[in-house]
Each structure stands twice: as structure tokens, then as C-alpha cells.
TrEMBL record:
The keyword Coiled coil applies. Pfam families: CID (PF04818), CREPT (PF16566). GO terms for biological process: mRNA 3'-end processing. CDD domains: CID_RPRD1. It comes from the Eukaryota. Keywords: Coiled coil. Residues 1-134 form the CID domain. This is CID domain-containing protein. It comes from Glossina austeni.
Length: 341
């Protein structure tokens, strides 16, 4: 994960687009650097006030994703955003006119209300500020809210060939999980060292413990067969069998607990690998873009280099010019001229 700087943040915000991958990737990066949340939100606020109306919705999608998916890491973003969202909704309500923008922001507010992201009173205040200056839409506010509620119930059945607008709409289709963003989110990508440690731990898991598995396989059959009880001839034999059964139960309970823990670890590892792979894919895309960019720069430089070489080859070689002085005496210097009487 790249280090945090304001310059890096501004670059990422400038490159942000409406695709789910773009919003998701930047959201993960912001959550990873949540210790800088105050500066991040300050920069986000300044930029959303300056971007075109068409991009304000993308900034709000990003804020929604960060607010909802950072809750498991800490409350920093949720609290910090709550302080500036009234100003944001007032700004949008006063400066924007797009019905699409207001409709999608209404869906965000509906989702926040349904999932308890913010208190109903606070969401009502957000909605009032959003619609306060939106005079042309005030009469249709109730109708728009009903339409928003219906649209949030659509099924998650879009294909990869949908347009950017359809892909963006996917971000706000409910999946029934009150603790997650409207689409299936990725987690915080693990550091390589953390991933390696988890992989090594799995190598030493219960299912790889051949010694214990062999002990279980070699348990005597009489400890699991009730019919063997009829063969007991005295009290000592019964006590010996009871001790064997108790040891086997303890062994199996311990091994089953280890297997259950291993299942949890493997589930966690699968999520880590998914998140790590998603991050690497995004980094690969960025690296490919940079490579293409620098290849183009190299081609331009090579073209300039060739032009310079061609220009130099066309210049005359002064050492090969004939002697035009004809053996005449050299011209006098400035000092000689002043010394002439």
C-alpha cells in the first residue's frame, strides 16, 4: 500500500471515476490511512466544492463507501464526516440542479437511514439542507423519495457490459447486509509480511498434523463400539476401557477445536488473498498506465534525439572549409589600433 501524502491524495481524487473498482480501491486506501482522516476529509471537502457537478456524485459515493466500510476499523471517518456533511449537502443544494444527482443522493440518505449509519434526526437535517434551495424539485420531493425507495430494491443482476452509469448504480443496490456497503466490499489489503505469516501458519495447521491423525487412526475399535461392552468380564477391564475412552474423547475434542480454528483461519486467509489480489490488480493497472506513459515519453525523446543528430549531420564542418584569407596578414587587434599614431 503506497504511503500517504496530500499530493498522492489529490492525484487519486483527480483520477477517481464512477466505476466500482475505482471507488472501491480509493476507499480501501483511505481506510488504510485512517490515522490521517482529519486531513483526508478536509481535502475531500475542498475538492468536492470545486469539482464539476457531474463528479460530485462520485465523491459522495466514495464518502459513503468509506463511512460504511471503516466502521469495523474505528469510528473516525463516520464522526469526522458527520461534522462536514451538513455543509456538503447545503453546497450541493445551493449550486446543483441535476435531478439525477439529487435522486442518487436521496438513495444514499435512505440507505444510511435504513442501516442506522446516522441518527434519523441528522439524516432529516441532511435532506432538508439538500432540498432547501432546490426549488424546482420541492414539489416532487415526496414522489422522488418513493421512487428512490423502489430503486434500492432492484436485483444485483447486471452484466459487465453495462455502461458506466449502470455500474455506478450497482453501488447502491442493497444486498441485505446492514454492516456492509451496498455492494460486496473488499477489506483492508494485508501487508505482504502479514500475508506470508498467515500462509506459514496454515502450513502448521491441524489438518497437517500427521502425528495426531495417526494417533486417532490407531485408536482401538472397542472404544467406539457399544457391543464391546458385553465382552467386559470384570471391573478392572471396565475401568481400563473407561480410561481409554476418556483419553480418546479428550484427544478428539482438542483436535476438533483445532480444526474449527483452522477453518476460521482459512476463511480469513481467503479474504486476505482476495483483498491482496484486488490491490495487486489495481497496482498492475496503474503500473501498465505508467509504463505506457513513459514509453510515449521515450518515443518523443528518441524522435528529438534523431532530429538533433540529423540537424548536426547537415551542419558544415568548419575544419573542412578552404582558407579564404589568401595568405593575407591577419587583422590588427584592438590594442594595435589604439597604438597607431
Amino acid at each position: 500500500m503506497s504511503a500517504f501524502t496530500e499530493t498522492a491524495l489529490l492525484k487519486k481524487l483527480a483520477e477517481l471515476n464512477s466505476s466500482q473498482q475505482s471507488i472501491q480501491t480509493l476507499s480501501l486506501w483511505l481506510i488504510h490511512h485512517r490515522k490521517h482522516h482529519a486531513g483526508i476529509i478536509k481535502t475531500w471537502l475542498r475538492e468536492i466544492e470545486n469539482v464539476p457537478e457531474s463528479k460530485k456524485l462520485i465523491f459522495m459515493y466514495l464518502a459513503n463507501d468509506v463511512i460504511q466500510n471503516s466502521k469495523k476499523k474505528g469510528p473516525e471517518y463516520g464522526k469526522e464526516f458527520s461534522n462536514i456533511l451538513p455543509k456538503v449537502f447545503s453546497h450541493i443544494g445551493e449550486t446543483c440542479t441535476s435531478d439525477k444527482l439529487f435522486g442518487n443522493l436521496g438513495r444514499i440518505l435512505n440507505i444510511w437511514e435504513e442501516r442506522g449509519v446516522y441518527e434519523p434526526k441528522m439524516i432529516a437535517d441532511f435532506r432538508a439542507k439538500l432540498n432547501k434551495q432546490n426549488h424546482s424539485n420541492e414539489g416532487n420531493d415526496g414522489k422522488r423519495k418513493n421512487e428512490e425507495n423502489n430503486k434500492t430494491k432492484v436485483k444485483r443482476s447486471r452484466t459487465s457490459s453495462d455502461s458506466d452509469d449502470k455500474n455506478t448504480a450497482l453501488l447502491f443496490e442493497l444486498n441485505g447486509d446492514a454492516e456492509q456497503s451496498p455492494y460486496l466490499p473488499l477489506g483492508d489489503p494485508p501487508e505482504p509480511e502479514e500475508l506470508i505469516k498467515a500462509l506459514v501458519k496454515i502450513e502448521n495447521s491441524a489438518s497437517s498434523d500427521a502425528i495426531v491423525r495417526e494417533r486417532i487412526a490407531n485408536l482401538p475399535p472397542e472404544i467406539s463400539e457399544i457391543s464391546c461392552l458385553n465382552k467386559l468380564e470384570d471391573k478392572d477391564a471396565a475401568k481400563a476401557l473407561a480410561n481409554q475412552v476418556n483419553e480418546a474423547v479428550e484427544l478428539l475434542n482438542d483436535y476438533n477445536s483445532r480444526l474449527a480454528a483452522e477453518m476460521e483461519e482459512r476463511t480469513k486467509l481467503a479474504s486476505m488473498l482476495r483483498d491482496f489480489q484486488a490491490e495487486q490488480k489495481e497496482l498492475l493497472v496503474q503500473a501498465e498506465k505508467r509504463l505506457e506513459e513513459y514509453k510515449k515519453k521515450l518515443q518523443k525523446m528518441l524522435a528529438v534525439q534523431k532530429e538533433i543528430r540529423d540537424h548536426l549531420s547537415n551542419l558544415p564542418d568548419l575544419t573542412q572549409l578552404p582558407d579564404v584569407t589568401g595568405g593575407l596578414a591577419p587583422l590588427p587587434s584592438a590594442g594595435d589600433l589604439f597604438n597607431i599614431h
